[in-house]
Design a protein that fits this description.
heterodimer, A: alpha+beta, Ubiquitin-like (UB roll), DNA polymerase, domain 1, five-stranded antiparallel β-sheet, B: seven-stranded mixed β-sheet, five-stranded mixed β-sheet
């Protein structure tokens, strides 16, 4: 059984599952990897009249990977499910050992390193990726990053921003020391650290302006 | 991703990475009109003509309405909706050229900046580097080499758009001007947007003569301008090589040799093939490839492949032994790279002589995006998606493996998640391998390198040993300087060898040493280039990455030995170098060279000339009792000629400083029994936020043509830091990375 594999807020997997079953599509796969892969296929094959799921997911950035009663593949990490099965590639692979932070996403509002997080850890929880931070670059961190032109190659920046987002959520006016502590798990080989620091301060200001207005 | 058709009107190909005449650019077909003909020299003697045909090499094949798209040359297209697409022949790897190249072009085109889009060029000789004759990105050369061409391409389009409007209105072109993408005839009040003129302009012949603006009239060049690529890099939409997805694409990893040059003797894939999702496990020249439906099963399966390696000679390699060998070799002079005066006689007559040896290790580039490459191979075509700095070379090498003529190979250059030289591989290692994998995958395939693969994959910055002897006169002034360098040549065996190696001296091994700016009357620089089976390559700032450290560290030793202030001695010996002198004085002033520092803190200074740019830095540092170094402040001054985008120049200086600090404080690749000892960021650590100092960058205003920006801030970092540590502790750092064990006792150790 597919259990629950939902995307977005408004449509649940059971609903899609029912639709699939009503069209005579049987689901027998047992592993999460198979499920996800099969799921894409099924949607592509049988929901052609609906919005293409893959496209939706890619745009959405806010997925719920909720899998009940399933034993995920050993080592099948959230990162690769997000990138290769769901198709949200804003979350990056940098080290595979939780050393660089490029894969940082939010799991129920906490920053996690998705490269070492087994899918089982994400069961029933919200996973927010960089694509889900805002729909229109309106998040204060995105605005500050643009204003200060933080990124160089840009590869680590999704992870940097996702780490910074949790910092700002928990501490609306961080000091340099707070920033050092919160951000030292994220490596930037291009060396944009001083701009990241400035941009976090700037984003905190922007968020405060928004709150007071 | 669009699959562009590549017309290949002009054929220039490397016949292979080792072809000696590969770089000598010759077009098999003379462009009908040469708009731009420049000659330039690299490495002493190679003359290359660059040309730009009047027609776009690549009209937008996806657009059925391409007839109405105005494409006056291969570098810009203007669509009826006013969108201006700038085609970049250089790769964006963080250095900002996807913004500065459009700035150059639009300075002359004067389109509405908000309508500018950027697109990576396909591989075509029209996009060859104006100096190096192949399509590539490197050597801090994009802006200097495109300074004129991109402005001319913009001007050409503007002239034609004005002509189109003038003809339409039956008015003289000389009475029209442009403003933000609109041609205006002021007297009559007539106006037409560029987009509305696209069709008419397409019918015109490009002008023979294209005057460029007087720099005094620049409105865009020199102004801090926001990067065009930032929005895509903060919402996850930026496409790097690793993000490429093709329908039906498979994933692959490769089990590569544990020792450089080792070969597969035998392997057993039975267990690996039992993992669900695994499609193929087969031998390829670089090892054993595992192809699967997804990355994860491929990686799992690779661990299950049992391989017996024929390890060969390199299994004996040990970097600690090599350093000892290098030191021995440095005791005798090598091939002469530079000799002025009579160093031996001057040393014999010196009041004081000083000798020192310096060591730096192999270094990996460690781009945040590990190497990767997507290949879609068919009987008659090969399409490649990857972040590369070396399109022409990669295409030639890929074509050879694919058994296709180069024009049947297309490369889609994605954004690069860092390059630092690694993605300009003379053997196209990561591209060639992926074509081999595609042959066994029989489907589009993405070869993914893990961090461990990437770090152990070789093509490092060479390890170096430098031995100096210098003589001072009775007043403490340097009168003799000899410098023997030992380290592998990176140019040997590359297409650039004929132009960079002369009389046994690879110019990139001695750059920054043989071209010393200091006025020392008797000087000798010589070189040993041992052949070692570790593949080596250019790494951000190339030879300067080691000569900067050793030369400026040893210079500081001379200053102290002669009782001179390190800043004053530099200033005195740079009297005939006005640009470096100005940079040095600026950095000293901004850093407050003589101002007292908090207890325990030391200040170090260094200068370095590289990629035609002048950089000086002052670093403030302290050392705790356990020997841990804290970098508090870095002040940097640079003269890189005219700045196109000052904010990008600052960003590059900041980034290069962090890159240099990482090399100074953190990283080394070592080998034991031929095996690389480092695996991931735990044992090849990067500088992190909490270690990142305050950085100030000061740009010397200049009206000279632009010079390099991406690399020149790296070389002075390590010596400025080593010199600061000496000032703080009295301990001289002569090997990198700086080790706490060498400094224990801390800043308080100095009385």
């Amino acid at each position: 059984m597919i259990g629950q594999l939902r995307y977005g807020e408004h449509r649940s997997i059971p609903e899609i599952h029912q639709r699939l079953e009503s069209r005579g599509v049987g689901i027998a796969q047992r592993t999460v990897g198979d499920l996800l892969e099969r799921y894409e296929e099924l949607v592509a094959l049988h929901l052609a009249d609906e919005e293409r799921l893959q496209e939706r997911l890619r745009r959405q950035g806010q997925v719920i990977l909720a899998i009940d009663g399933m034993q995920p593949d050993v080592g099948h990490e959230v990162l690769w499910v997000i990138r290769d099965s769901v198709g949200l590639t804003g979350t990056k692979f940098g080290c595979g050992m939780a050393l660089c932070g490029a894969c940082t996403v939010h799991l129920d509002g906490k920053a996690i390193r998705s490269c070492v997080s087994p899918l089982s850890r994400a069961v029933g929880k919200h996973v927010t990726t960089i694509e889900g931070l805002s729909k229109d670059l309106s998040h204060p961190l995105q605005r500050a990053w643009i204003e200060i032109d933080v990124p160089q190659c840009g590869y680590c920046q999704s992870g940097q921003i996702m780490s910074a987002a949790i910092l700002l959520k928990e501490n609306s006016k961080p000091t340099d020391k707070d920033i050092d502590e919160a951000m030292s798990g994220n490596i930037c080989r291009c060396g944009t650290y001083s701009r990241i620091r400035r941009a976090i301060h700037r984003a905190a200001e922007m968020a405060a302006e928004k709150r007071s207005s | 991703m669009s699959r562009l058709e590549e017309p290949n009107q002009n054929k220039l190909e490397l016949s292979g990475a080792d072809s000696s005449n590969a770089v000598a650019a010759k077009s098999s077909r003379i462009a009908r009109r040469n708009f731009l003909k420049t000659t330039a020299t690299i490495g002493g003697g190679l003359c290359i003509a660059a040309y730009v045909p009047e027609l776009a090499a690549h009209p937008d094949s996806n657009s059925p309405a391409s007839a109405t798209v105005f494409a006056p040359n291969a570098f810009v297209r203007i669509a009826p909706d006013d969108t201006v697409t700038v085609i970049s022949n250089h790769s964006e790897m963080g250095q900002g050229i996807y913004t500065s190249l459009p700035m150059l072009l639009n300075e002359e085109l004067e389109a509405d900046w908000s309508k500018i889009k950027i697109e990576a060029a396909p591989v075509d000789p029209v996009y060859n580097h104006t100096l190096y004759g192949v399509q590539m990105t490197g050597g801090s050369s994009t802006t200097p080499s495109e300074w004129e061409r991109f402005r001319k391409m913009g001007a050409m389009a503007r002239v034609m758009l004005i002509d189109a409007a003038a003809q339409k209105w039956s008015l003289p072109a000389s009475e029209c001007h442009v403003e933000k993408g609109v041609v205006i005839h002021a007297a009559s009040g007539k106006k037409a947007t560029y987009g509305s003129l696209a069709d008419a302009a397409s019918q015109l012949k490009p002008p023979a003569n294209i005057p460029l603006k007087d720099p005094k009239q620049f409105t865009l060049i020199g102004k801090p301008t926001r990067r065009l690529d930032t929005p895509s890099k903060v919402n996850g939409t930026a496409q790097f090589g690793l993000d490429v997805r093709l329908p039906g694409m498979l994933f692959a990893v490769v089990a590569r040799p544990p020792v450089f040059g080792a070969r597969v003797a035998s392997f057993d894939a039975a267990e690996a093939l039992r993992i669900p999702g695994v499609r193929a496990v087969e031998q390829i020249p670089s090892g054993v490839a595992v192809v699967a439906d997804r990355f994860w099963p491929a990686k799992l399966a690779r661990e299950k492949v049992k391989i017996t390696w024929d390890e060969g000679e390199n299994a004996k390699l040990s970097t600690s032994q090599m350093f000892a060998d290098f030191s021995k070799q440095s005791a005798s002079p090598g091939n002469i790279a530079k000799k002025t005066g009579d160093p031996a006689a001057a040393l014999a007559s010196a009041a004081k002589t000083i000798t020192a040896e310096y060591d730096v290790p192999y270094l990996a580039h460690a781009m945040m995006e590990p190497l990767n490459c997507v290949v879609d191979l068919h009987a008659n075509s090969c399409e490649i998606w990857t972040g590369t700095q070396f399109e022409t070379v990669d295409r030639a090498n890929a074509a050879q493996v694919a058994g296709l003529p180069p024009e049947k190979v297309q490369i889609h250059t994605t954004l690069l998640g860092g390059g630092f030289g690694r993605r300009a591989n003379p053997a196209s290692d990561f591209v060639v391998e992926a074509v081999h994998v595609a042959k066994i995958a029989k489907a589009p395939v993405k070869v993914v390198w893990t961090r461990e693969d990437d770090l152990a994959g070789g093509w490092y910055r060479p390890m170096w040993h430098d031995r100096f002897t210098a003589g001072l006169d009775a007043q403490g002034n340097p009168i003799a300087w000899t410098h023997t360098i030992v380290g592998q040549s990176i140019m040997q065996g590359t297409p650039f060898e004929p132009y960079t190696i002369k009389d046994g001296v690879d110019s990139t091994s001695v750059e920054g040493a043989a071209d010393l700016l200091y006025g020392i009357p008797n000087l000798q620089v010589d070189l040993h280039s041992p052949k070692i089976g570790v593949p080596v390559q250019w790494w951000r700032s190339v030879g300067h990455s080691h000569t900067g450290f050793s030369v400026e560290g040893f210079f500081d030793e001379l200053a102290h030995a002669g009782g001179k202030d390190p800043y004053e001695l530099r200033r005195n010996l740079l009297a005939n170098q006005p640009r470096m002198s100005a940079v040095l004085q600026l950095v000293a002033e901004k850093a407050g060279w003589r101002k007292p520092l908090p207890a325990g803190r030391g200040r170090g200074i260094a200068t370095h000339f590289s990629f035609d740019s002048y950089v000086a830095q002052v670093i403030e540092a302290s050392v705790d009792k356990d020997g841990a170094v804290r970098v508090h402040r870095v002040v940097c001054a640079v003269d890189c000629g005219r700045t196109v985008n000052p904010d990008i120049v600052k960003a590059q200086m900041e980034g290069g400083i962090i890159f240099g600090l990482t090399a100074a404080l953190k990283t080394e690749i070592t080998l034991e029994n031929g095996r690389v000892q480092q695996h991931n960021f735990h044992d090849y650590p990067m500088l992190r936020m909490f270690e990142s100092p305050e950085i100030e960058v000061h740009i010397v205003p200049s009206e000279q043509n632009p010079t390099g920006v991406g690399e020149p801030s790296v070389p002075p970092v390590a010596p400025a830091l080593a010199n600061a540590i000496f000032a703080a502790t009295g301990k001289r750092v002569r090997r990198l990375p700086i080790r706490a064990s060498d400094l224990a006792g801390g800043s308080e150790a100095k009385s």
